[in-house]
Amino acid sequence: MNAIDKQLQLQPNRRMSYIMTMIILSLLFIWSVTAIHFENVSASGTKIAKNIFVGLLNPDWSLIMNVTTEGIPYLLIETMAIAFLGTIVGALLAIPLAFLSASTIVPKPVAFIVRFLLIMIRTIPAIVYGLMFIRVTGPGPFAGVLTMSLTSIGMLSKLYVDVIEDLDKSILESMEAIGCTLMEKIRFGIWPQLTALFTSIVIYRFDMNLRDATVLGLVGAGGIGAPLIFAMNSYKWSEVGAILLGLVVLILLVEYVSNRARTKLVKG
């Protein structure tokens, strides 16, 4: 009876919490809707929207078939190369940082300091890093690779740490009991278990970097983003449609391949 009484006492509290949550969410939704203003939509804006829609449905096929450095195929390959190289560099640099921020591997003060550093890295958006690296290296793909590498370090380290700390600790305790060093525990007790999971995480991050590389191109960090913003500023909507069509095809292809690869890694 005591358990039933407690359950009955908890139900009104849960109902009140649910009601308060719904009220707060409703107020936030109403407040957000007030930010929408339709009076700024003019006749010229409607015409421009129509031109954008028509241009997207009628892409410039000459750009798609252009195999020079100014064509969409080359720019897509450059964008993918920026994302791929940035992901690989970031993935390699994130491994030691992940182990140094895992409290099950290193002392807690060391793990706290490294985690704080990684949080600082993740706090700054990728486009801000891109603008900073452009000032250092100048516009071009190199700035994009540096940006992708740095942003990948922050996120991959966090995901690596989650995997490391979820491992079976009995293996580490057994190795510590027989006098294994820190490097031996990592090399023979941890790394063989992490290879497949780490690879799956890297593939997932590559998907994200491919989209970020396009955005970085808007600020001059190489790839297809720069031609996209130029075409938009010039109101060449057929070129915009061609570029977006190429991006959609590339992302769908990469998404399919990466999903298949992650599935095989998890099952295998």
Automatic annotation (TrEMBL):
UniProt KW keywords: Membrane, Transmembrane, Transmembrane helix, Transport
Compartment(s) of residence: Cell envelope; Cell membrane; Membrane
Transmembrane segments: 16-38, 72-100, 112-134, 213-231, 237-257
Keyword Transport tagged: yes
Domain ABC transmembrane type-1: 76-258
Domain of life, per lineage: Bacteria
GO CC terms of this entry: cell envelope; plasma membrane
Family assignment from sequence similarity: Belongs to the binding-protein-dependent transport system permease family.
Protein name per the record: Phosphonate transport system permease protein
Organism annotation: Lysinibacillus fusiformis
